[in-house]
Design brief:
CATH topology of the largest domain: Cell Division Protein Zipa, Chain: A
Number of domains: 3
Structural class: alpha+beta
Strand order of the largest sheet: 10-11-12-14-8-15
CATH architecture of the largest domain: 2-Layer Sandwich
Distance between the termini: 78 Å
Shape: elongated
Number of strands: 15
Number of helices: 10
Radius of gyration: 27 Å
């Protein structure tokens, strides 16, 4: 061989060596990025490995409040239509027995629609309340393909499903849209573990787990997903905590005999900044769109733009959803003042669930209870009225 041939052979060896070195470096970089995303961003209690040996944060959800005072025993979930606690008096046991009339299916899961619950971060996976699978592929995958491949899954598990992709250029997670054309090598698919129906059934979670394995095969991806047993245990703990704080406060105004005209109720409600919304209730929201409290009819029919014109009712109920209302004590004070104003303007009586008239002494325990529950939520990283709370209590 000539000197030129040996030179070309040597150059070829150098090129091949450089290619192998570059590929090895790329693989190392991607693996390091994936590890950072999984271990740092995703140091959540559902995964086997915990960052820095931390204990499961969900164990703290059921811990007593500072000072050693434990939460009250769980009551009936709001999802079954009950309003808890009642406001018959200062005694907690007596107050938990009352049920507000007319609230039957206002917040039942079957009657609920997607409202503010899915705004903002609600469209992305949240490791605190979701069971999440993380995928890494060799080739980027368009967002719409992830949607297409998980559409049937969303229908079968009947729980909120969330998809996000990691933008490696901007170093951020994007919520994937159904028609999205952006492509991602790293993406997540999560299912919500708990809502007002309770914890996700084990069969649904197992089905989701299997579907994630199949999705990894479809995209030739490496997938990391928690064990089903550990996720179910975490979901049970979270659901138990949610059941403890899942209450609504009801204040009712009742008529002596003649009843209240719908036109009068509409005028009073709109003057107070409330708006009639699609679920048959007047709603008062804050500047950010969060519901502070609502007003429903204690009798049939529910409020509507048509029924309100000829409506005659013997009672109305103001409702405050404690876990979904930011600054609950302040909102309760505003709701109480408005209920008193309605009672005075309509010549009605402000009563509890048992028909007994309210006194300031009977209302003070209610204020303390709101503070108690919302403090527990804040201490557990689920502040009342926040994005996580709105999703959990939907």
């Amino acid at each position: 061989m000539t000197e030129l041939h040996w030179g070309l052979v040597g150059l070829g060896v150098v090129v091949v060596t450089c290619v192998f070195a570059f590929n090895a470096w790329q693989e190392y970089r991607h693996r390091k990025l994936a590890k950072e995303l999984l271990d740092i961003e995703y140091g959540d209690p559902l995964f086997d490995a915990r960052v820095g040996g931390k204990t499961d944060p969900l164990d703290e959800l059921l811990a007593p409040l500072p000072g050693g005072e434990a939460l009250d025993a769980p009551g009936t979930r709001v999802g079954d239509g009950r309003i808890e606690p009642g406001l018959a008096g200062a005694d907690d046991e007596a107050s938990e027995e009352g049920a507000s009339q007319g609230a039957g299916n206002l917040d039942a899961p079957s009657a609920r629609t997607a409202r503010e619950d899915v705004s903002g971060s609600g469209k992305s996976t949240q490791p605190e309340i979701d069971y999440v699978a993380i995928f890494e592929t060799e080739e980027s995958v368009p967002a719409y393909r992830v949607f297409e491949s998980t559409r049937e899954l969303a229908e079968k598990v009947k729980r909120p499903l969330f998809r996000t992709g990691y933008d490696e250029r901007l170093l951020r997670w994007d919520a994937l849209s159904e028609g999205g054309r952006n492509e991602y090598r790293i993406f997540r698919v999560g299912v919500q573990l708990v809502d007002r129906r309770g914890a996700i059934p084990g069969g649904d979670l197992s089905f989701f787990h299997l579907a994630m394995q199949e999705l990894a095969d479809e995209f030739t991806a490496v997938v990391r997903i928690p064990k089903v047993e550990e996720a179910l245990d975490a979901a049970g703990k979270l659901d138990a905590f949610c059941e403890n704080v899942d209450i609504q406060i009801g204040l009712s105004v009742v008529s002596g005999s003649e009843g209240f005209l719908g036109s009068d109720l509409k005028l009073l409600a709109e003057t107070a900044g409330m708006a009639l919304e699609g679920e048959g209730r007047f709603v008062r929201r804050d500047g950010e769109g969060n519901v502070l409290y609502s007003l429903i009819n204690r009798e049939s029919p529910v409020f509507s733009s048509e029924s309100i014109k000829t409506l005659l009712t013997r009672g109305i109920t103001f409702l405050l959803d404690v876990p979904r209302t930011p600054v609950g004590e302040r909102a309760f004070g505003q709701m109480l003042d408005l209920a008193k104003h309605f009672a005075k303007s309509l010549n009605g009586n402000l009563v509890d669930d048992n028909g007994a008239e309210f006194s300031e002494a009977s209302l003070e325990p209610v204020r303390l209870r709101i503070i108690h529950y919302q403090s527990a939520m804040a201490a557990s990283g689920l502040p009342a009225g926040g994005a996580l709370a709105r999703r959990l209590f939907s």
